[in-house]
Amino acid sequence: MATSEKPLPIPSQETLPFWEGTKAGELFFQRCRACRRFRFYPRALCPYCLSGEADWVPSTGRGTVYSFTICHRPASEAFAAMVPYVVALIDMEEGVRLMSTIVGCELEAVRIGMPVEVLFEPVSDTITLYQFRPAN
Q1: Per the domain annotation, does 2 fall within a domain?
Q2: Inside any domain, residue 106
Q3: How many angstroms separate the Cα of 122 from the Cα of each of 51, 68, 83, 125?
Q4: pLDDT at residue number 24
Q5: Is residue 97 a part of any domain in this protein?
Q6: pLDDT of residue 36
Q7: Is the pLDDT score of 133 beyond 70?
């Protein structure tokens, strides 16, 4: 597989299980063992109770669009071929919010509250990015 021209995440000790999951085609979130709350982005301590104990739990992969923008100017030259594209905040069923692109539909069809589901885009030998499309 060719390496992406776009800047890619560099997995850390805390985020490696997340990126291993996306490479396997599954979205995982950390869930605190103490307070049982999900969290995203992955990190060593729970932002709610400061516990250092967490499990990696598979996500349903479903969420809704909280907010979005249509990018007509690329963030950098690496994204120029994508313009125009949708960047959205997605509220996942697990209660976390994450940012991603929405693909698989006309730009004008994206709406706040729209149900979406995750899909995966391999971009290098080690990194697979998550994206969202309208849910069936």
Answers
A1: no
A2: yes
A3: 33, 23, 20, 8
A4: 97
A5: yes
A6: 98
A7: yes
Q: What is the pLDDT of residue 16?
A: 96
The DSSP symbol for 17 reads H
Q: How large is the average pLDDT for residues 47-67?
A: 98
The CA distance from 9 to 15, in Å, is: 10
pLDDT at 72: 96
Total domain count for the chain? 1
User: Burial letters for 55-80: b for 16+ Cβ neighbours within 10 Å, e otherwise?
Assistant: eeeebebbbbbeebeebeeeeeeebe
Identify whether 8 is part of a domain: no
Residue carrying the six token digits 């992955």: 42
> Is residue 79 a contact partner of residue 6, using CB atoms and an 8 Å limit?
yes
CA 19 to chain centre: 10
Share of residues in the chain with pLDDT > 90 (%): 90
- φ/ψ region of 95 (left if φ > 0, alpha if ψ in -120 to 50, else beta) reads left
DSSP 135: -
Q: Quote the Cα angle for 132-110-40, to 5°.
A: 40
**What is the residue range of 59's domain?**
16-134
